[in-house]
Amino acid sequence: MGKEDSLQQKKKNEAHLSQLASVGQIAAGIAHEVKNPLTAVKGFLQLLKEKNEERYITIAEAELNNALAILQNLLQVSKPDMDEEPFERLDLTVELNSVIQLFQDQFYRVTVIKNLENPGTYINGKKNQLKRAFFNLLKNAFEAIEGKGTIVIGHEASEDTVTVTIQDSGSGIPKEKLNLLGTPFYTTKQNGTGMGLTFVFSVIYQNNGFIEVESEEESGTVFKISFARDNGSAETKEKPRLTLQKTTELKDFFTVNRDKFEEQLLLEAVNVRDKIDEIMGIGNINLLENAHKLVLYVVEGREHEVVHFAKTEGIMWAKHSLTLAFKLEWIQAVRRVMWDFLFHFNRGKEELQAKEHFFALEKRINELIDQFLNHLFMSYSQFKDDLIRTQREMVEDLSVPIIPLTQHTSILPLIGPIDATRSITIEEKVINEIGANRIKTLIIDLSGAVHMAPEVIHKLMNVIDGVKMMGCEVIITGLRAEVVRLIIGLGLTFENKAITKGTLQQALEDHLS
């Protein structure tokens, strides 16, 4: 990048930051006037849940949560430096790898290609802010791909610059809209707010980076982010030493130092910590309490409880459609903080004994955490599969509604197109219902049926034959002219199979009179 180009890009960045600052001032005023009343209303809605119709209150509460989330995002944009996180030397290949792992639940449909060249090169930036920005960019890339696709993540370094590229094969963005990216409330998503990309642009600029976007509709989008390379000496950055209360038992160590554990966990789980209250509100899931519970189960080696807890958590996250990537990041953060605490627990012990104890713990703890993740994912997937199957069965029942008219008479109104799959469902349900409920007369109304293919007519004739074999009389009503012509053309007839009536009303009058 030449010096002149760099100056032009810097001016563009400054102009963009100025626009964001103006929007931020408005946002801060809105937040001051609106956030507190909304929070109060939310509290009253939670109280009303106990005494009123829950589904309306739940909807209202969800809308309020959305409003509060938007206000919080606006506040973050209005005060990008409110986070006191210091600048530090970062190897972006390390940070990108850790963020990519949060999307493992999407790897079955999207191929992720990593071209992370020149590892060991550094930039100077705010680690947690940048990880959140890359998380948002990757989340957008996955969401832009319907069905299967590809995301290519690149990292390369020149003498002066470190560049990260994120390229997806998704739906793309119209050329005339590219300049609007990063503007608050502009979004290409149906239910988006645009605040995610606004945060990304703001963070990149605040970390002295440049961002370029190329896109073509139906061909995908490329985000290219460049930072100045830090060519200083790669000194090892020593982590601040924790001051923890010593105990003889490992379980007691995690219990008495729980506040410190939660503090470290919130520092590690960058993308989840801002979602804790939201997740609590949606699914009544206390992430910090559950993390402490998991840690105690693991350090005590209680395998049965770990597996049961994982299954319960999987169901809860699936039931409330919570993002699985957040759960994965949270558990991996729990694992990292646990090892940090175990290091402190073993510090000062006789060297050989400490090493043997530490390696024994490593095997046991990693196995239990891996078991937790495996059972969590299986439970999550099983619940989703069961939900889809239940919904499919419900749709099938609604597509073949057998309505009891009297103890021994039922009506089957067939509405809409009847294809081969639906005709199989009709056969199965009709035969089962007649056998189970001892139906003696079945009125099949075809006045609302459309597009009956020849194979469907043949299947319907077979169903009528089966019904008669079970001792049930069939009355056909509402035959339209085009259906009759199709039946005649196939050389078929309802003679000796069923009674035909012009309309359902006529059949009811004749049968019930």
UniProtKB/TrEMBL annotation:
Gene3D superfamilies: 1.10.287.130, Histidine kinase-like ATPase, C-terminal domain, STAS domain
Histidine kinase domain sequence ranges: 29-231
EC number: 2.7.13.3
InterPro entries for the chain: HATPase_C_sf, HATPase_dom, His_kinase_dom, HisK_dim/P_dom, HisK_dim/P_sf, Sig_transdc_His_kin-like_C, STAS_dom, STAS_dom_sf
Domain STAS: start-end pairs: 411-511
One GO MF term: phosphorelay sensor kinase activity
PANTHER family: SENSOR HISTIDINE KINASE, SPORULATION KINASE A
Protein name stated in the entry: histidine kinase
